[in-house]
Write the structure tokens for this entry.
Amino acid sequence: MSTTKHAATAHDHITPGASSMRAVIQDRYGPAEVLRHATIARPATGENDVLIRVRAAGTHIGDWHLMTGQPYLMRIMGFGLRSPKARIRGTDVAGTVVAVGAHVTGVQAGDEVFGSCDGSYAEYATARPDTLAPKPATLSFVQAAAVPTSAATALSAVRDSGHVTAGQKVLVIGASGGVGLFAVQIAKALGAEVTGVCSTTKVALVRSAGADHVIDYTQKDVDANAHRYDVIIDMGGNRPLSQLRRSLTPRGTLVLVGGEGGGRWIGGAMGRSLRALMLSPFVKQELRMVLATVKRPGLQALSQLIDAGQVTPIIDKTYPLNDAPDAIRRLCTGQAHGKLAIQI
């Protein structure tokens, strides 16, 4: 996630024209009410930048973290102590390249791309070329914008950290979330037998993503399940390590991915992930955490899975740019049955 500042300040008034654009910006941390629609100057294209005409932007929980400035560790890490350095929200993007910097190769004007950028809730955005890849031909811009962060995180968790192989039994906790739905599909593509964990209202959704079995945690928790799994991918963040390890095979792999709730300073799930890393050298099971980034090789691998029909982004709802705050509100309720996107 970039901390690049936009050229316009909070008090600028830009007249609509060839050098302006519509965007969703914020000048202070807080709930969705801090987001506002404005007309501001288009971003400048640096020597190493790609300028994109944004066609759609995806939403993910990272947008909420950047909007609220929580956990506070983010502010210390450089995202802005009292207010966000990056005024325009959004990072996941799909669109058309309109210009490239003097030092950029491999990307040219007219290319349809998807990936990660600076401020995707806008008509134009800049990105570094290594965070972009050609848009999968089988996807619309809206579908492509729903892929980057969530699917790249799932790929890192399942393939790179979980090392999932054909025939393994994989448990995906938080299977109905943005990352979870992709994790189910990627694990299936790798030949695993997948069990998803979700609430009652989302059982059908997880089945539609390809899960072989679904556990409704409101009726039966994972610990009550007699099965043991070769790999557990946990997006939930609220189960004790001891419980998760009991559900693993003796030499199984536990992969912890994010997780919400708790700790305003470092985040509730971060403490558990750090404990897992400290414990891992002393047990036979592998305990790992994932902090994925969106880069071209991962996007290209995802494109191959998408074009092969093995991975498909599931879209819950699409919003116009003006209604981006409503998309963030719905994201935070946990009611979405799939990804939320903003069409521009």
Observations:
- Residues 1-11 have pLDDT under 50 and may be disordered.
- The domain at 20-147+313-343 is CATH 3.90.180.10 (Quinone Oxidoreductase; Chain A, domain 1).
- The chain has two domains: 20-147+313-343, 150-290.
- The first helix runs from residue 61 to 68.
